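Fold description:
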Amino acid sequence: MVSRSNKEVRRKRRHKRVRATVSGTMQRPRLNVYRSLNHIYAQIIDDTGGVTLVSASSQDKEVKDPGGNKQTARQVGQLLSLRAKKAGISTVVFDRGGYLYHGRVRELAEGAREGGLTF
């Protein structure tokens, strides 16, 4: 019988490959995405200092319709870009976290772009 590796293990392996090339600096921090079954989370991280500069999630009070759908992911992206503007961040490098650039991850990225972040 063929044993299949766990989905989370495979995602972490892909994320490791992405992180080998993507790193955030103070001038251009990294926008990291994590999606669970019900929620989506995003952080803007300065890897040189190891500090989270801005974060947003579908559990924040500012998000109108919490849940696991694409509209909520777009709202999280817009909220993240709004908070990033307040912190003086305009350009980031996108880290998809080992997930496919599809569905909720793509909607979050497009929402962040609509809010004014460039990547």
User: Anything to note?
Assistant: The first strand starts at residue 30 and ends at 35. The helical segments are 7-21, 70-86, 104-114.
